[in-house]
């Protein structure tokens, strides 16, 4: 497995699609290349004085960091050329960027969060990039306002002690790890399956005052010893959705960012559907896990605008089903 590069993996998969033009392989390679550039920026940021605020808010009202802007520019630059991508929606773009004219007909629509977990930028903490890919249909903004099941691939790049590229496509999840000496991503885990039950939970408990009652009861349940094992779930929260989700993908458990009452303008929690919830839900389902709003699958949620949000409970089948039961019983 250690001599399978990302490119070799993609070429092997492409053989199952005789109609393939090579554009998808090109697109994934470009996203991986952007990951290498972002990882390089992150490694240098403390020495180069590139930490801190860009003194600007994005359209969601979040403070933009200098590196949010740098990473967004990297992705826009490398997705824009060659008419492969028609439209790109990013957390850091007020409006989606249109890359291909009607005549050029790019085949794909890409949604991305260039730096997820931005509050970790200044403290050298774990960070990520999230992406979801749809086929171009109408060739207009309407292509964005569709179910997450329209995605043909999704994944993330995890910037931790090692940089890893996680790709869900064709119903399978594969993990590639970056090697600096060769500049390549090598396949390190193939056909990954999420445990059906785990022992971790990730949630910002500082928000518990604003949670609905069923959420408080659910988390209390996770902290109550299991009658069979005598063990409770462990809290593992890093303020990086990608980092927290990756642990849950490997070890099982649940990540939650539920709806709460902290801000009447944001009744659906914090996370955005197109470039946070849909892509990770796609990865979770491809690995045998689940992603739910509490009331139904996240992949079935259709956003009404580019930065729309939804509640997210994502992870092992067992924990997500239990959370849905608490939500159902509260109705
Ligand atoms: P970001 O994309 O602006 O960084 O926001 C998303 C992040 C997630 O990575 C993380 O799980 C969550 O926001 C943390 O939010 P909070 O500080 O409210 O716990
Ligand atoms: Mg984010």
Q: How does the SSE layout of this entry go?
A:
Layout: H1 6-14, H2 23-48, E1 53-57, E2 63-65, H3 66-80, E3 85-90, E4 97-98, E5 108-116, E6 127-135, E7 151-159, E8 163-169, E9 172-179, E10 184-189, E11 200-202, H4 213-222, E12 234-235, H5 241-251, E13 253-257, H6 273-286, E14 290-292, E15 312-315, H7 317-330
Parallel strand pairs: 3-5, 11-12, 11-13
Antiparallel strand pairs: 1-2, 3-4, 5-6, 6-7, 7-8, 8-9, 9-10, 13-15, 14-15
Helix pairs in contact: 2-3, 4-7
Bound molecules: 2,5-anhydro-1,6-di-O-phosphono-D-mannitol and magnesium ion (MG).
What's the total helix number? 7
Name the helix and strand elements from N-terminus to C-terminus, one letter apiece.
HHEEHEEEEEEEEEHEHEHEEH
Low-confidence stretches: none
Strand order of the largest sheet: 4-3-5-6-7-8-9-10
Query: End-to-end distance, in Å?
Result: 49 Å
* Biggest sheet overview: 8 strands, mixed
> Which radius of gyration do the C-alpha atoms yield?
19 Å
Bound molecules: 2,5-anhydro-1,6-di-O-phosphono-D-mannitol, magnesium ion
Overall, the morphology is: globular
Mean pLDDT: 94
Give structural attributes.
single chain, 331 residues, alpha+beta, eight-stranded mixed beta sheet, five-stranded mixed beta sheet, 7 helices, binds 2,5-anhydro-1,6-di-O-phosphono-D-mannitol, binds magnesium ion
What would your notes on this structure say?
With 331 residues, the protein is of the alpha+beta class. 30% of the residues lie in helices and 24% in strands. The chain has helices spanning 6-14, 23-48, 66-80, 213-222, 241-251, 273-286, 317-330, and strands spanning 53-57, 63-65, 85-90, 97-98, 108-116, 127-135, 151-159, 163-169, 172-179, 184-189, 200-202, 234-235, 253-257, 290-292, 312-315. Strand 8 (163-169) and strand 9 form a beta hairpin. The model has no long low-confidence stretch (mean pLDDT 94). The structure holds 2,5-anhydro-1,6-di-O-phosphono-D-mannitol and magnesium ion. Magnesium ion binds at residues 91, 113, 116, 276.
